[in-house]
Structure formats: structure tokens, C-alpha cells
Specification:
Elements lengths: L3 H14 L15 H16 L4 H8 L3 H8 L7 H10 L10 H6 L7 H9 L2 E6 L10 H9 L7 H13 L11 E7 H5 L5 H15 L4 E6 L13 E5 L5 E7 L2 E5 L2 H17 L3 H14 L1
Parallel strand pairs: 1-2, 2-3
Antiparallel strand pairs: 1-4, 4-5, 5-6
Length: 294
Amino acid sequence: MESLESVESVEQGEAECAREDAGPRPEDEPGSGVVTAFGRQLKLLRVRAGLERPEFGKLTGYAAQSIASFEQGRRIPPPRFIDRADEVLDAGGVLKALKEEVGRAQYPAFFRDMARLEAEAVELCSYDSHVVKGLLQTEEYTRALLAMRRPLLDEETIELRVAARLARQVIFERWPAPLLSFVLEESVLRKPLGGKAVLRGQLEQVLLFGQKRNVEIQVMPLDREDNAGVDGPFTVLTRKGGEQVTYMEVQGRSSLLTDREEVRLAAARYGIIRSQALTPRESLGFIEKLLGEL
């Protein structure tokens, strides 16, 4: 019989050899968080079913090394694996129930609470003065922004965050459709971050989203002498039932405000910002004009 030390050594070796298709690494510290809890549950169910990793891997379409990485919490299992594993192991939905929580582990730790609230929002109002709101970003624009970060992010982290940010855009397809309002400073729409081709694609996508019935895009022109957004970007979310929260982020740090008075003031400030910006129709025309200048 193999000793516990030898088994652990083999598992560590398998994890080190795991291929990229094993899924991205969670941004939690290894050995902590929901990804690790999922992995332990997965292993328990696999052992109960009497399946070795290679056999289980064949049934789910993944290599034994990938299974090891999932079980040890070193890689985030993709949704399709979770669904298939639940079926193969006759888990009765136990693994599927963790799918959303496991998926949120792909976000930076400071954004996970916001990601959960965003997915539940019935109304979202966002003012941005630095870059295009993440929900509106194209893949190329997102990748360009992440590549500019200092200190540098490794390629795996960049790809993980690109995928996570794009996945959030499912909010535009939800039904009942949430009400989405975005006010962007003109300077944001003029910055050629990533190059003119990337900017062109980004402006085209903003126009596309702005044509949805539940989405309003507004531009705050540079010539405005009065701008209530001088304190910086923020987002106000409304949950079902009317509860509101305010989210702010800067330099990789975030604040989630739940105090009613603070949130009320933020919502009022956003209303003033909207009144100072171009109307949605004027804004789409303005963006089309910017595209013509590129």
C-alpha cells in the first residue's frame, strides 16, 4: 500500500504537469476558497463512485492531470466539466449547485462581491471617466488594458480576466431585461488605447449596445463647464426589491457602499450627471462622428 507521503507527492507532480486545458488558476491563494471546497467534494464523489482519475477523465473528456488539478483546487473547472461530472458521478445536482460560486473565483478578489451583485441587478447606472466600462468592452480593448497594467500581469492571468469580463456581458441578454445606463466622458472615447483599430472596434460595440431597448449610452462632452462627476467613476446598482448599493474602484481597490444615505447621494449625483450629458440619441450620433474621424 502506498504511503500518504507518496500519494501526496504523486498528486503534487500531477498538478505541476497539468496542461493549460485544465482551466485557469483561481485568484484565491492555493488551498483556500470555494474552488478548493469544490475539489474536495469532487474527489469524495469520484472515490465513492469507485473511479480512478484516468477512467473518470475519459468519461468527462479531461486528462487525469486536469482532474487532479480540479480536485486540488489548483485550476478552476469550466461549467461544461461541472455539468458532466455531476451526471457521471450521479451527484444529484450537488456539483452543479456550486457552479456559479466556482465561476466567480475567476474574478480578482476585490471584484467578486460586485460580480455577484451585478448578476442580480435589475438596474445598473455607471459613470466612467478613465476607461470604457468593463461591461461594454470588446475582447481586444480588455486585453490591451490588462497588458498595460503595472506590475505586469502574466499571460494566463490576462486571459483569465479577459474571459471573465466578457462573461459578464450575459447581462445584456437576461430576461427580464435589467435597465442599464452608462455615462462616458468624451475623453474616454477618444483615447486610442491599444491602437486606433482597437478603439474603432470599441466605439462600434458601444454603438451596438446603445441600440438595445434597455440600454442608454450618454456622453459627457469635454466642453461642459459644469460636471457633477469630478470625484471620479462609480456605479449604482438596484436589486430586486429596491435595495441599492454603490460600487467604486481605484488602483485595484474597491469599495461597496450600502449605507442608505451614501447610496442616496450617489444616485442623486448620477441623476445630475445624466442631466448634464448629451441625450442618448445625441450621444450615439456623437460616437458615430468620432468613428468617422478615425
